[in-house]
Amino acid sequence: MIRALTGFSTRNAWKVIAVWSVVGVLLAIVGQALIYRVTQTQTGDFLPRTYDSAAALKIAEEEFGEKPDANTVTLLVARSDGERLTAADRRRIGEQADDLGKRRVTMPKDEDAGPMEFLREDHSQTPRLSPGMVAPDRTFELVSVKLTGNSSDPGLQDVFRELRDEAEAAFGRVGMRTGFTGGIADTVDTADAEENATKITGILTFGLIVLLNVLVFRSVMAAIVPLIAVAVIGGAAAGVVVGFALLTGVKLDTSTPQLINVVLLGIGIDYFLFLLFRFREQLRARPGQHRRDAAAEATGRVGTAITSAALTIVAAFATLGVASFGQFRVLGPAIAVSVLVMLLASLTLMPALLAVTGRAMFWPSRSLRRTPKEGSAGRFGALVARRPVTLVLASVALLGALAAGMAGMKMNYGQSAGPDDTPAAKTSAEMSRALPAGVSDPTTVYIRAKGGAELTRADTHGLTRALARVKGVGKVGATTFDKDHDAARIDVYLSADPQSQKARDLVTGPVRDTVAEHRPDGSEAHVGGTPAIFADVSEAVDKDLRVVFPVAAVLIALILFLLLRSLLAPVILMISVGLGFAATLGASTLVFQHLLGKPGVDFTLPLVLFLFVVALGTDYNILISDRIREEMEDPGPARPAVARAVRHTAPAIATAGLVLAGSFGSLAVSRSPGTQQIGFATALGIMLSAFVLSVVLVPALAALLGRGIWWPIRPGRAGRHSSARHTGYAGPVDPVRAGHVPPPPGVFSVRE
C-alpha cells in the first residue's frame, strides 16, 4: 500500500503538489482565524467535576453567572504624587470607575488579517468594574475589572490594551496613576515583553535548519524546499485540528497550537531528511535512472520506516485520550491527528517534490557525480563494529549517571510565571507590600443549600469566623449571596503566593478541613481558586501518569513487533528509549531543581518527555534498525552489515536530531519557566536519542548479538542479494557488501 501511494504521487507529481498547495494554504488561513474559538485558558475547566475545585467552578457558573471565559484583572489606583488617598480622592476614583464601567470598548481592526477579518470574533464589550479594597496605609485602592473572552485571542488582548489606555487617561485627568495585574494583564505584558525575543528565536531556528541542510547537502534547494513543504503541511494540519474541534465541540488548551507547530516542524523536517538521504543514495547507485523512478524507489523503501515511526507517535499521543485531566485528553488526539496529516504528506507531497526536482534538488553540489569518501560516519561505523562492548558500557554508564539525577525530584504544579519586570509584575509587587499575597487571586469558598433552601448570613457566620482563624489566611472577605439566596460565596485571601506549594498545601489541608467541618447544615461547600485547582490537577496528573505510561509503552512495543518482525529487537529498543527517558528527566532535575534552585520540575514535564522523547526518539531507532535489518539480509558477517548501516544512516539521524533539538530548543529561550524546562529537556532528550541511543547503543547491541537480534526470524539466511532489490541496482553485486572478500581496515562500503 505504501509503495502504491508513493508510486501514484511520483507519477502525478504536479497534481499532488497543486492539491497540497491549495488545500494547505486554505486550511492554514481558516485555522489561524478560528483557532481562538476552540481554545480555552481556564485550567480548572479541564478537571472532571468530581474534583472539589471543579465542583466550585460549577456552582460559580450556575448560581453566580460566572462565565468559563471570564477574565478578572485588578486595577490599582494611586495618587501620582505618592501621597495617601483622601476621602475626596476615593470619591473621584469611584466616579471614574463608574464612568469606565459604562463605556463600550471597541476591538481595533487587525490590518494584517486582510480578507479573513470577518472570521475574527468581535470582542468589543463594556467591562464590569467593581470596588475592591483599600491598602491599610491608604496608598492605593483596588478596583476589580472583568472582561469576557479567550485571553489568548489577540482580539481580546487589543480590547484590554484599549481599556488600559482609557483608564490611564481617565484617572490621569484627576491626578491618579494606574496599574493592572492578574489574568490577561499578565498575559499581554508578557507577550509584549517577549515579542522581539520570539521573533529573533524564530529567525534563528529557521537559520539553523537552513544552515544545517546547506552544510549537509551543499544545496540551497535541499535546505529551503523542506521548510516550505513543512510550513504548508503544518498549516493544513492545524486547520484539520481546528475543524475537528469545531465539529466535536472539544476545547483545546492554548499551548496546543504551539506544541503542534513545534512537533510538525521537527518530525516534518526529519522525514524529509530521511527521504533526501535515501534519494541521494539512490541517484548515486543508478546514475541513469529517471528522477521519477528514483523518487519512487527511495520513498517506497523509506516510507515503511516513516510510517512506522509516525504511527508510533500517533499511538503514544492517542493514549492521552484515556487521561482524566482534560488538558492531556485533548492534547493527545490533536497531535495524533496532526501527525497523521504529516504522514500522508510524507507519502504523497514529499515524493512528488523529489520526482519533480530530481537531481536539481542537490544543485549546485557535485556529490552525485562521484563516489563519496568514507567520511566520519564510515569511520564511526567501523568503530561500532570493532568495539561494541566498550560502546555499550560507555552509553549505559552515561545514561545511568544522568538518570541518577531523578533522586529527590519534586513536581512543581504552579502556573508558569512570567517575567518579573513587566508593568503587571511591578503592580503585583506593589500590592503585595501592603496586602496579603493572594489579594489579586483569592481562594473562593462556594456554598449551595440542598433542595433550594435559603441561606442567611447567620448560616455562614460560623464558617467565616473559622476561616479567619486558619493560620496562613490573611483576610476573609464578606459573604456574597446569589439572587435566590440558595448559594453563597466567600473570598479568602491567603498570605502565601497563590501559585506556591505553600498555598496549595494550605488549601488542601486546613482550609478544606475547615470548610468541611463548619459548612452550614444541609449544604454542600467546595473550595475553588488557583491553589485549589492546581492541587487537584496534581492529583489528576499523578493518576493519569500511572495509566498513560504503560498503555503507551505497550502500543509502541506492538508497532515495533509488527515493523521489525522480531521479539528481541523491540525489547532492546524499548529498554534503550526507557534509559533515554530516565536520563533526560534526571538531567533536567539536576539543572533546574538542584543547580538553579527551582521548586521542582514542571508537572507536565514527565509526560511531555515520555511522549516526545520516547515517541520521537523511537523514530531514529526505527530508522537505524530498519537499515541494519536491510543490510543483514545480504550474506556475510553481521558486524560489517552494522557498520554499513551506521555509515548510511548516521548522517541522516545526526542532521535530523540537530534540527529537531533546535526546534524544541527554541522554547528554552522563553521567559516562562515551565516552557523553558520543556524546551531544554526535550532538546536534550532528542540529542541523547539521536547521538547516544540510535547511533551508538542500538548498533553496538546489534553488532554484539548479530543476526540473533532478529530472533525468531533471522535475515540473510537464504543467501539472496537483497540490496539489488532495495535500490533497484541490477548490476554486479559489490563483493565487499556480499561478504566474499574482507573489507579494507575501517571501510565497510564502497558506495553510499
What key phrases describe this protein's structure?
alpha+beta; 4-stranded antiparallel sheet
Notes on the structure:
The chain has 752 residues and is of the alpha+beta class. The chain is built from 23 helices and 13 strands. Strands 8, 9, 10, 11 and 12 form a five-stranded antiparallel β-sheet that branches. A four-stranded antiparallel β-sheet has the order 3-4-2-5. A two-stranded parallel ribbon has the order 1-6. Helix 4 (87-100) runs antiparallel to helix 5 and helix 7 packs across helix 10. The two termini are 27 Å apart.
TL;DR?
The chain is α+β, with helices and mostly antiparallel strands. Helices cover 61% and strands 9% of the residues.
Number of helices: 23
User: How much β-strand is present in the residues?
Assistant: 5-15%
Shape: elongated
Please give the number of β-strands: 13
Indicate the low-confidence ranges by residue numbers. Answer: 718-752
Q: What is the terminal separation in angstroms?
A: 27 Å
User: Mean of residue pLDDT?
Assistant: 83
Largest sheet: 5 strands, antiparallel
Briefly note the structural class of the backbone.
alpha+beta
What share of the residues lie within helices? 55-70%
The Cα radius of gyration reads 30 Å
Secondary-structure topology with pairs:
Blueprint lengths: L1 H10 L1 H22 L4 E2 L11 H13 L5 E10 L7 H14 L27 E7 L6 E8 L5 H19 L3 E6 L2 H34 L2 H29 L3 E2 L2 H30 L5 H28 L7 H22 L1 H9 L17 H12 L1 H16 L7 E2 L10 H10 L10 E7 L7 H12 L4 E4 L3 E2 L5 E8 L6 H18 L4 E6 L1 H35 L3 H28 L5 E2 L2 H28 L5 H28 L7 H33 L16 H6 L7 H4 L14
Parallel strand pairs: 1-6, 7-13
Antiparallel strand pairs: 2-4, 2-5, 3-4, 8-11, 8-12, 9-11, 10-11
Helix pairs in contact: 1-9, 1-11, 2-7, 2-11, 4-5, 6-7, 6-20, 7-8, 7-10, 8-9, 8-10, 8-20, 9-10, 9-11, 9-17, 9-19, 12-20, 13-18, 13-21, 15-16, 16-17, 17-18, 17-19, 18-19, 18-21, 19-20, 19-21, 20-21
